[in-house]
Amino acid sequence: MRIAVIGAGLGGLYASSLLAQKGHDVTVFEKNAVTGGRLYGFTQDGFAFDAGPTLLLMPDVLRHAFERLGQRLEDHVALESIDPVYDVYFSPGEKLSLSSDVQKTKSDLSRVDPRDAARYGDYLAESKKHYDAALDFFLQRNVHRLSDFLSVKAAQAFFAVGLSGSYSDHVARFFKNPRIRAALSFQSIYVGGSPAKIPAAYSLIQYVEATQGVWTVKGGLYQIAVALKKIADKKGVRIQTNQTVSEIVVEDGKAKGVRLADGSFFESDVVLCNADLPFAYAHLLSKGQSPVQKRTLDPSCSAFMMYFGVKRKLPLKHHAFLLPEDFAKGMQDLFDAKRLPSDPGIYLCCASKTFPEMAPDGCDGLYVLVPVPNLQAGIDWNQAAPAFRKTVLGKINAWLGLDLEDSDFAFQKIVTPQDWKDRFGLEWGSTFGLSPTLTQSAFFRPQNRDPRIKNLYFVGASTHPGSGIPIVLFSADNVVHRIQSDFP
Length: 488
Ligand SMILES: Cc1cc2nc3c(=O)[nH]c(=O)nc-3n(C[C@H](O)[C@H](O)[C@H](O)COP(=O)(O)OP(=O)(O)OC[C@H]3O[C@@H](n4cnc5c(N)ncnc54)[C@H](O)[C@@H]3O)c2cc1C
Known about the structure:
The protein is of the alpha/beta class. The protein starts with a strand and ends with a helix. It has 16 helices and 19 strands. A hairpin with a 4-residue loop joins β11 and β12. It has three domains: about 200 residues, FAD/NAD(P)-binding domain (3-Layer(bba) Sandwich); about 110 residues, no CATH class; about 130 residues, Guanine Nucleotide Dissociation Inhibitor, domain 2. α1 runs parallel beside α11. The chain has a seven-stranded mixed sheet. A five-stranded parallel sheet has the order 9-2-1-13-19, covered by helices on one side. The site of flavin-adenine dinucleotide has 35 residues, from α1 and α16.
């Protein structure tokens, strides 16, 4: 079968190789010059940076993905676990270290609140139930029919997976101390959602961090995408970069191929869309063909990024999170009022601490991610970026005593929500795709086969099962399985 794939992000690259391995004739069209999508990185002046993902969870999922392609992960990338997984700062100098050694985390939690620390084991046991149920019921499988939603088994799954309450209520059931609640809730932002609005199911993130650890990759996580591109080439996938798809061509209710920006038409039996689903609905399908109107979709938050090549060594660990002092207000600013917070939450990654070769001698690379409202907030980033940069840098300096100023930087780069939109076609600049709210999670997230257009499939963060490296790999496995069973 001839298959046209739109986009060479993680989902597109992995699914293409699987499809080529099954004997299909696969061509991928990628709008950018480089493949990997959001899983990308760059080098400058002797510094190497991840630009997107920096925390690898569930490493076995990645390992299995390479195995499915007949490869050994270790022949392509070197994984390293980081422990303590990260430091969480509540105020200047006041922090908690979370570890993949449960006893170590418990003892650090007990410094903050011994009664809450005693509940940590129970909390993880409950989160494990969410993890196990999610693996069984939706992460690794397709939802086929309406009856799948209505069966007794699905109803049981609904509760077992933790879809019936919010993440923050779930955390509050176990812990009273506001600091501990905040330290165990902010992980909802990994998938771009507010802890008050996304289902408790996402506490599985905590479970995997605490029991499987947080991993990184020598040279940067984007080496995963570099390796997948090499494998795709070997499998005979034709990847055309600098090729923007402008339309999914549909005739008589069937996808017939793709139209490229230069007007040419590429005919195919199947179209697999890795471009983010809200973008595809809004721009690649003509009006009336999209199953859901764009306005009914709820996008995740965005990210304001700064990458600094620092000409000295920094007193930092690999990962650190600086929470808003008033965590609840910080979340309200971000997700409800949709305004730039005066006290932003900040994530820092200093990968050259683990891999010194990622920066010149005597230097460190500093990656700064600040969750910010998506473009629905109407913020003009050309105007807002310089002042917001100052606020963020001011907080980093004040809380960590770094004294960073312009003369410390060999270079600096800023990426705003507008850049995410322009570079990767992410509607509203929402870096994590569709928000993981209840109505956009698990069985309710847009599925990987279009409900109205035959032969059109989706893979990637805004489709079932969701965002993040391991989850997008599941998405690719699921869609390939679906295509194989639709075209035996
Ligand atoms: C700042 C940031 C930090 C993150 N941190 C983590 C983390 O620490 N851990 C983790 O697991 N996950 C993290 N994620 C999430 C993770 O990066 C994504 O879930 C994953 O990479 C998405 O892959 P994808 O294949 O769905 O989409 P994408 O990477 O968006 O790929 C889609 C591809 O389609 C291309 N495309 C779009 N439109 C067209 C068109 N019209 N024609 C041709 N090509 C087109 C795009 O250029 C892109 O290459 C992070 C994301 C961001 C942005």
